[in-house]
Design a protein that fits this description.
Elements lengths: L2 E6 L5 H14 L12 E5 L14 E8 L4 H19 L6 E8 L3 E2 L2 E2 L1
Parallel strand pairs: 1-2, 3-4
Antiparallel strand pairs: 1-3, 5-6
Helix pairs in contact: 1-2
Amino acid sequence: MPFIQTKTNLPVSQEQEKALKARFGKTIALLPGKSERWLMLDFEDNCRMWFGGDDAPCAYLEVKLFGSASGSSYDKLTAAITDDVCAVLGVAADRVYVKYEEIAHWGWNRNNF
């Protein structure tokens, strides 16, 4: 039940969105027990964002997941999804933030896990 929200101050074409979807679908498997089958994505482009005092290309990703993962798993995921954003959108790695949130209760299909 992972959810990745991507915000950037760049425009994101439909082709780029599909490329990120495909990459994130593979990358999420770095977290044990997670797969594209349960992955939900949200893309927000053209956001009014500043990083380090300027509005050069940047991105902010929030990764929310049911349960928890180890620090080493998060380290691997941070590297991989940052690489995904850099490759597809051309944002420099040092202009990407990734936030993680572990969720204890997650609802789906009128029930909770």
